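Readers of this paper often ask what the protein records in our data store actually look like. Such a record has a labelled line for the sequence and another for the backbone structure tokens. The tokens are whole numbers drawn from a learned vocabulary of local backbone shapes. We quote a single record here, exactly as it is kept in our systems:
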Amino acid sequence: MSAKSIAEDPEPAAANNPASESLRLDPRPAPSPETALVDRVLSGDMQAFAQIVQRWQGPLINLAWRYCRDRTRAEDMAQEAFLRVWRGLGQWRRESSFSTWLFSVAANVYRSELRRIPSLQLSLETAAEPSVPFIHDAALDASAREEAVRRAVLVLPDKYREPLILYYFHEMDLSAAAATLGLPEGTMKARLSRGRAILRQRFPQLEESPPAADHRSLERNLREEGQSE
């Protein structure tokens, strides 16, 4: 941003131009790159769908892995999700972002797949405890604690695991995560809270750990909520 003062900037003079004013005040967001790609796919451009796959393949495989914890199966599940996306592109209602719709389709595919062939279920008690603190390396200590919590999330019941995964690991905002799961925001908040409570009971020692730097850190939220009780 320029350090020039407004008095030195010739642009405000254009404010008297009605056309210029209407452009500045237009609240509509600019179309996303995915919007243009979807329009091209619907017009018959197959290469445009390949670009969508290239852009979103990694996130969808990562999400699938957190459902099934098997890399090969995660890749197969993501492929099935893209097939469902391909068939349903015309059903995307553009009031929501493309990514929200995409993850919603994928989450439904993954749930259906796990109902068909359940993955190996582990109990929360089998999740490893956070390691003894690395006294001489705070960053390594924080990383180890965060990894222990992430592994514990993967063995939570589905209704708590999915909200935590989307909100913390995929960094969706609350409304997008709720829309992805087809939940009211109030229900989403309640499930996040309950999921964190289960993890605090499993790892009470986190309350005495030094804070993580990231404000969206699940481990940090667990520690802070435990200390406030």
